[in-house]
Amino acid sequence: MTGGLNSTSAALLGLLHEGPQTGGQLVTLASQRFGPLWTLTRSQVYRELPVMAGRGYVRAGKPGSRASLAYTISAAGKRAFAAWLASPLEADHPRNPLLLRLGFSAQHSKADLRRLVMEAREQHETSLAQHTQTINALKKDKADRYALAAAEFGIAYEKALLKWLDTMPS
Length: 170
What we know:
This protein has 170 residues and is mainly alpha-helical. It has helices at residues 7-16, 23-34, 42-54, 75-86, 97-102, 110-140, 145-165, and strands at residues 58-60, 71-73. It has a two-stranded antiparallel sheet.
């Protein structure tokens, strides 16, 4: 946690700069903005929003349809987000489930390992297509160069991972 915020809270505050959003809208917006490279789950969002409200970083609006609440970033939330942006970058901790499972390869059969690699290939081909869609949407919206560069990283990552999967024993 850097600057008093964890990465989930920071992402939510950053997205709330675009205006009031419900939890579901925040999940959708995060998916559109960051693609499959950095995800927010519904459970993370709905767990974090009340905590952030308790800290005074966001304000909940009046319940809407199906009791949904639109949250708005507060002045304190904007200051916390600005402090997080200015804080030193925390260490990168990739949590790739494929690497974890391959780390226990002795407990897998050869057929299970082939299936695992095949599933990973399918997932990363899908992610590559999603990143391509994200880049196309960012270009259409004339997004700033840094947002575009972040999306391009996703494409480079997926291509590198797919190339690495080609080296797996068959």
